[in-house]
Write a structure and sequence with these properties.
Antithrombin, Chain I, domain 2, 2 domains, alpha+beta, 10-stranded mixed sheet, 11 helices
Length: 454
């Protein structure tokens, strides 16, 4: 049986008047920031067919703020702090069942070669909200550090995501914030495996025809929350955590955009991308609808099975920078996570902050939809580097990849400098000096191994 135009649409066979809007007291922060991510993700064609773990991404970035690691006198940081609900500083309200966060750090700073540790107050807060703090094994290779983080991700996603970071991501990093989650749900109204139509046409956006496996409910029509939006139709599928269990708070929302002249081969991409914004704008009405079964509609739904997973972790650095979290990437913004013990001048040690900044953010995801329910997993890594010149004891990087001057000096010893007579002090001398202004003496320079052997 071939799929007709009706097979590709959600057909509402009976509609009640839309319920009146009602007010809710939930805080807009997770929704607003989540929608920023969704809008940006859905408007990038390169992401088509890849799921974004929106909640997981929000968990990873917000954990820096919740643990008190951010430098508060940066305006962008203050803007984010002001937007976050007060309760999130008492409990990591988005770290619910199935979610996990971990902070991994190197015990020796790659830049300064000084020892590092997590500040006690940060560790205490992490412990109170369930964020794992773990040192990356000292002396281990970047490959082994990657395995340590990937093992955490593999465990917390129940094997759905096995790799998030690689050795090249971690070579010069000082720490990594990781978030991972898994979400598995059964349909409250299962689809019939016997009625699934195998190898049916799927009309791709580029005009080509592919294949899919269309699922149907046993009754072929089901009472479901359905809402007609300006740009298309929205149907919501209820779920339960256990087979035959009570209805869960997770819903599968399917938005099918309008197609020109009722022809499924003429799908409108702009309407598809506008859908997420319209869903956000109608969120109050949607919430009321799912709780008002008398306003549900009799829907004939056919939807395909799905198996979507990232082949390689996606770089979401630009997405974060352009949608409210540029502050993470400012030098020294992550000011209070790691510290090193130093002499305070009185013979006692005190912890001195080693400010960092995020350099890269990676995300991996898996979504599988089948007749019995769905399985989804996501993992995010925010890779941080030691910031230079961001504290009272600056460390300077000099990359001599442009003209520079070189001198070989002979300088007095410490003992000689302190001599009263100065008799044993050798005056400072310039032994050799040169300007390096081109690559003539550089490009064929031999290594020590070539010059001297082992």
């Amino acid at each position: 049986m071939s799929a007709t135009m009706a097979d590709c649409n959600v057909t509402a066979l009976r509609e009640e008047p839309e319920p009146k809007a009602m007010k809710f007291t939930y805080h807009p922060f997770p929704l607003d920031y989540g929608c920023r991510f969704v809008d940006a993700w859905m408007n990038d064609p390169s992401n088509d067919g890849t799921a974004m773990g929106t909640r997981c991404l929000l968990t990873a970035v917000c954990t820096f703020f919740v643990l008190g690691m951010m430098k508060k006198d940066i305006s962008e940081v203050q803007d984010t702090l002001n937007a976050m609900p007060p309760e999130c500083f008492q409990n990591l309200w988005f770290l619910s069942k199935g979610q996990a966060a971990g902070y991994y750090f190197k015990v020796i700073c790659p830049l300064t070669q000084l020892p590092m540790e997590v500040r006690p107050e940060v560790a205490a807060k992490a412990n109170s909200v369930g964020v794992k703090i773990e040192a990356l094994t000292q002396g281990a290779s970047s490959d082994e550090h990657a395995d340590q983080i990937n093992n955490f991700v593999n465990e917390k996603t129940e094997g759905m995501i096995k790799k998030l970071v690689s050795f090249s991501d971690l070579e010069d990093s000082s720490s990594v914030m990781v978030a991972a989650e898994v979400l598995k749900r059964h349909w409250a109204y299962v689809f019939s495996e016997e009625l699934t139509q195998e190898n049916e046409p799927f009309h791709c956006l580029d005009g080509t025809k592919g294949t899919c496996h269309l699922m149907m409910h046993p009754e072929k029509r089901k009472m479901l929350p359905y809402m007609k939006l300006q740009t298309g139709g929205l149907v919501l599928l209820p779920t339960s955590e256990k087979k035959g269990g009570e209805q869960d708070t997770a819903w599968m929302a399917l938005f099918l955009p309008n197609c020109e002249d009722g022809d499924p081969t003429k799908s409108n991409l702009s309407d598809l991308r506008k859908g997420s914004k319209e869903i956000k704008d109608k969120m109050h009405d949607i919430i009321k609808l799912v709780h008002s079964e008398r306003h549900w509609s009799l829907v004939c739904l056919k939807m395909p099975r799905i198996d979507a997973q990232t082949k390689e972790p996606a770089d979401v650095t630009d997405l974060l920078c352009k949608n409210g979290f540029r502050s993470l990437f400012l030098p020294g913004a992550i000011a209070h996570g790691l510290a090193t013990p130093m002499d305070n001048g009185s013979g006692e040690e005190e912890l001195v902050d080693m400010p960092q900044h995020a350099a890269k953010a990676l995300m991996a995801s898996v979504v599988k939809v089948h007749e019995r329910g769905f399985e989804a997993a996501a993992a995010v890594a925010i890779i941080c580097y030691r910031s230079c010149g961001a504290d009272t004891q600056p460390n300077v990087i000099m990359e001599c990849n442009r003209p520079f001057a070189m001198h070989i000096l002979k300088l007095p010893t410490r003992r000689g400098v302190g001599s009263e007579t100065g008799a044993d002090v050798t005056p400072p001398q310039f032994l050799y000096s040169m300007n390096v202004t081109n690559d003539q003496m550089l490009k064929d320079a031999k290594s020590a191994l070539e010059l001297f052997g082992k």
